[in-house]
Amino acid sequence: MIHSLADVKATKIGINTNIWQFCVILAGAEIGENCNICAQVLIENEVRIGNNVTVKSGVQLWNGVIIENDVFVGPNVTFTNDLIPRSKQYPETFLKTILKQGCSISANSTIIAGHTVGEYALVGAGSVVTKDIPAYTVWYGNPAIQKGFITKSGILIDEWFYDNLGKKYSLEE
To answer: Which domains does the chain have, with CATH numbers?
Structure first.
């Protein structure tokens, strides 16, 4: 479903993907199946989005952003793609930012260009990501620092893999 008030030039959009009002999606973008692209999202040409991805309102996905399957991007998350931006001066190639399978980026976070957020990692609200985030880890703050671990199913655990009730987990649970 593409809302009548969206401006969608892309043709590579998977089945069961919803694109809501006031979105702008450029012709070269690729979006997988069963995605939810909420209102007021901009997606540039060199953006790849996997399956089962949610991109909440107010997000701009600039050239070089690659989002794998099952990723959540919260409202007003900010991505950069040029470390030394200048008006009308563009790099030969834009830095790649990769969101690996199952990771979650919470509201109002900023992801500095050229970094990877690992599988199932969680970036807390309002964080500024200035380095690569390993899989199954929890990060927040400005700059974001590691605060713990998280299982594949989203259970917060400490460095010994125990939750706050004392139950032990593996990261793959």
So the answer is: 1-84+92-173 (2.160.10.10)
